[in-house]
Amino acid sequence: MNPSTSLKVRLPALVLVLEVMLLVLYSLFVTYDDNANAKMQNNATKPMENTLYRDYPFFADVQVLIFIGFGCLLAFLRFYGFSGMVFNFLTATFAIQWAILVQGYFQFYHDGKIHLGVINLINAEFACAVVLISFGAVLGKTSPVQLLVMAFLEVPIFSVTEWAVLKYLRINDAGGSILIHLFACYFGLGVTFVLYRPNLRNGHAKEVTGYNSDILSVLGTLFLWVFWPSFNSALTLKGDDQHRAVLHTFIGLTASTMTAFALSAVFSKNGKLTMADIQNVTLAGGVTVGASVDMMITPAGAYALGVLGCTACYLGYRYLTPFMAKRLRIQDSCGIHNLHGLTGLISCTAGICAILLATEETYGPSLYETFAHRSPPEGDPKLLELQQMIPGLKPGLGRSAQEQALYQVAAIFSTIAVAAVGGVLTGFILKLPFLASPPDDNCFDDEIFFEVPSDFYSEVKKAPVSESDSKV
């Protein structure tokens, strides 16, 4: 047992501190919302109107996406499958617990309490997804202690950024292209930039895949693929907007999947498919439609975004990731910059175009629901007219399409900047010597943190995997 990486004291001590902290904070600040509070007697009056029945299906779908989809996807490395799946499980569990408090403070805090319901859990899952995406950049090069610390720091930075952007810039970002994908990507890149390992600039002997690990990873891809429409639509306006979000996500995913197979074959030296392309590039369409997922971009527009996002993602894996590792000191283990960064930027650009083109002729009065900040302000006669057609329509800011587009641009740059700086600062903290960081020789190796079965050693003793089996 290597004393510098032993978890015997470090992990239990950290978990104990975190659990005591969470227990105290939950005791002081968390209570039920009206739909879970027995005093409100919802169960005795109209039980089927409880928000559980509206929100729980989305919660369950995102749970599958986070714990099974991400978990299996991160098991692609031949000698790092235990760590990929189990560290995802551990990190996600804590991130959701922590995000319930942090997200709840900004969104559900009143009367001195955070009022807990299923919708809080969904919000916490989105914060958790941010952490898991960032995790992909440092996969194989960090200990579970480092990952818990990273989650502890990233969730508040993300939550404050989200709160500030939504409160002061007032943007449209239904699928989280700005506040989830771009933030998570550039936070993760900031962390891995600081944790740069010069000895790994040309890769690692165990940074390879295997037949079984690739099959398990594709299973994760399939779970992500199937449940991504719920991820993109969970927090959109109920009704038409949510319906469009499901349709656009599915169409975008189908387009990126077809394109991924074609690109994998045409760019292969021998005309064969590469599993890494199937595992990652097929998902690009789900990200690319995110910023405009609830808008009237047309099914053809969603299809085009799927193709465009897939192409950018594929070329990023093929050319940009190796360049960043060798020239920019950014060792992006899972290529999150391709699947979440490049596609996120394309998605944001498409969202800005959709905002600029949005008119009453296309949307009707619902234009001011989908783009709430374009709704007339309080006292405007037009607001009264719209409220007669859409009861409950709230006053907006009276923004023009051009003004809203400029705020979207400001949100993109500010989010990337805060995420990158936050990631860099977090990276310096993760370099502290007592956080059990694995040495270069033990990166991408389950044995350093797990009791492994006997057949693990027989796998290690086999002939080295060919270069073609390595992840792109």
What does this structure look like?
There is one protein chain. With 472 residues, the chain is mostly helical. It has a single domain (10-42, 50-357, 400-469), classed as Ammonium transporter fold (Orthogonal Bundle), CATH 1.10.3430. 63% of the residues lie in helices and 2% in strands. It has 17 helices and three strands. The chain has helices spanning 10-29, 52-73, 81-107, 118-135, 144-169, 177-194, 211-233, 240-267, 275-280, 284-288, 299-327, 336-357, 360-363, 367-370, 381-389, 401-430, 454-461; strands at residues 30-32, 109-110, 113-116. It has a three-stranded mixed sheet. A hairpin with a 2-residue loop joins strand 2 and strand 3. The chain starts with 9 loop residues before the first helix and ends in an 11-residue tail after the last helix. Residues 465-472 have low confidence and may be disordered.
Following the backbone from N to C, one meets helices and strands in this order, namely HEHHEEHHHHHHHHHHHHHH
Biggest sheet record: 3 strands, mixed
Number of helices: 17
**Overall average residue pLDDT:** 94
**Strand residue percentage:** under 5%
CATH architecture term? Orthogonal Bundle
In the CATH scheme, the class would be: Mainly Alpha
Low-pLDDT segments: 465-472
Radius of gyration: 23 Å
SS-based class:
mainly alpha
* Head-to-tail CA distance between termini: 32 Å
Number of strands: 3
Helix content: 55-70%
Function: Functions as an ammonia transporter. May play a role in the elimination of ammonia in the gill.
Main location: membrane
Domain Ammonium transporter AmtB-like: 23-433
Family: Belongs to the ammonium transporter (TC 2.A.49) family. Rh subfamily.
